[in-house]
Amino acid sequence: MRQHRVTSFDVAALAGVSQSTVSRALAGDPVVSEPTRTRVLAAAAELNYHIDENAARLRTGRTGTLAVVVISREGEDHKDVNPFYFSLLGAICAAASSRGHETLVSFQDAAETLSGRYEEQRKADGLIVIGTTANRTAWNYFREIGENGAHIVYWGSPFDEGLDWIRADNQEGARLATGHLIANGYRRIACITSDHSPQRQFKERYDGHVARMREEGLPTRAVEIDESLPREEQGRKAVSDLIASGEPFDAIFVVCDQIALGVLLELHERGIAVPGQVGVVGFDGIRSGAYAIPPLTSVEPDFQSAGTMLVDKLLKQIAGTPSDERRVPVRLVPRASSKGPGLLP
Amino acid sequence: MRQHRVTSFDVAALAGVSQSTVSRALAGDPVVSEPTRTRVLAAAAELNYHIDENAARLRTGRTGTLAVVVISREGEDHKDVNPFYFSLLGAICAAASSRGHETLVSFQDAAETLSGRYEEQRKADGLIVIGTTANRTAWNYFREIGENGAHIVYWGSPFDEGLDWIRADNQEGARLATGHLIANGYRRIACITSDHSPQRQFKERYDGHVARMREEGLPTRAVEIDESLPREEQGRKAVSDLIASGEPFDAIFVVCDQIALGVLLELHERGIAVPGQVGVVGFDGIRSGAYAIPPLTSVEPDFQSAGTMLVDKLLKQIAGTPSDERRVPVRLVPRASSKGPGLLP
DNA sequence: CTGAAAGCGCTTACAG
DNA sequence: CTGAAAGCGCTTACAG
What we know:
Chains A, B: One of its GO terms (molecular function) is transcription cis-regulatory region binding. The structure is a homodimer of 345-residue chains. The first copy, chain A, has 345 residues and is an alpha/beta fold. Helices cover 41% and strands 15% of the residues of chain A. Chain A has three domains: 8-51, lambda repressor-like DNA-binding domains (434 Repressor (Amino-terminal Domain), Orthogonal Bundle), CATH 1.10.260.40; 65-165, Response regulator (Rossmann fold); 168-300 and 331-338, Rossmann fold (3-Layer(aba) Sandwich), CATH 3.40.50. In chain A, helix 5 (83-98) crosses helix 11 and helix 7 packs across helix 8. Chain A is elongated, with a radius of gyration of 26 Å. At the A-B interface, helix 4, strand 1, helix 5, strand 2 and helix 10 of A face helix 4, strand 1, helix 5, strand 2 and helix 10 of B.
């Protein structure tokens, strides 16, 4: 841009002080006298001076940067990443920014290109790893990075033991969803979920659902998803399986919105009316649920809290004062898909 | 993590060479002899040594990092950011990574917190700015940053003159969409768009639509969106306006998928059958369109090309060899929403 | 082919 | 309250 980069020495010369005073003044060191600070700031502004963060970081050893890794399925198109993780990513970047940190973002999938040596390379002070549980290789990789001393906080990891993770309050969310269906008059409620999935979140949501059903003395019915399919196809297939089983049902609690979108589509194509014949509730609060037909009732984590909690947990880990906050609060967002049963055939 | 950070001097001592030789060997400098290189690499691996990028960057002046700024509406929830931009973001990060660059990502909306001095602060070598055209303050801010010498490439800017921008091949996409509706038997095709929006893309899509209609000798009909509403509500309102006008129509080309989702919802609630009574085609290729009811036909840019083109254009600008590639190729993705008219009432 | 040395632009003890 | 000086960990002319 310019021939000679403007440095703190140039500012010092213009302000008539030493370079170290410029550094102190700009860092807000209270030891600098007010008139001096004013002169320095004016000179810096005049020269359009900005601190070279590389030099500052080399000196201090801190980068002021957090790495955010979004794990996707190997070979998956970015367009097919669960929008939930994009919302979470946005919230994390915003929270980091509000804490004065930059965010170095990467989408990682293929085993050969996994890269997490951010701290060794002094590119970041710590990592936040989020994304699909399905890519086991990636999670193993980052677990190892963490075991070698890196600072990491997770959302979505299949591993819990000894790791710093944060998740939605899944049990509570599932209870809200189930209670809502019951309150709206549904009784034969099936749950599309996975019991043996590495996705711990699904298991937690299923557990919360079962607990709430038991309180009401209602029988439970689980339909296992086929994890090898794309999420929406999992929903379509689960509905087919549920219908093929011959057991009657008047509502479905689906442990993930993306799967629920497939459920709605399959029910529609089979001419089954939602919410009249079957009520549906999802989980995650993805935006397109609000514009599904009918609009999908869902349980939504507070994304802003999620971002803040992940960032703060990481910063505390880096500072050596670990926190034990783990659960992001959730709320039920009632929409048309669960309005109550009409006349059953 | 460790008391003493492992430096190239430690590697040098272990390998029995000088520090400068370590640097050359790890940089792949061909001047280093093969046996020496092997010894250095072994020592580096043994010590788990990684180059301190801060130090390297301070020395070379290059950061190997690109800043990616996603502009959103002021106060907008990250969950409400158009998923199109998230797909684009993912593609940009992947392309940058394949070119050996990191990506510093930020979501920016509020005027007070706009920040784009990445190059002055030596945090990045250049910027890619994408996002909603609606936040004029933000685009003004980045235009000024660019005028002050920063390297920037844009997608979505309301400004064209003198800027390095990339956009989808909107005219061609609109022609494909319109031709597809015509081929499927629709004739009275309305277009939900904006003629005076700062969104140049909408205008381009409308122009392409009109051109194709004219070729066929068909009359055109534009319904203006109300930009003050959320995208989906714009679609609902436009459908209401269209119907209220009393003019018959059997298809709608909507210049944006998010708006099209609202269109589908409104048509559904009014009991108008899609595609039997009205065919609908959108633009952008957002994922939830595929799971709308009925699944939405759309024009989709090649996201991977989009990411690569943005990154390469920026890298060329930085290198001082500007390119004039501007248009990302598009393709039509036919789905149920435009299958052809049934019997009109 | 390898080494000794300078220097990128800061922050921060240490003196005064 | 301010300044002179060291040093963070690299890369890269310059010598040999």
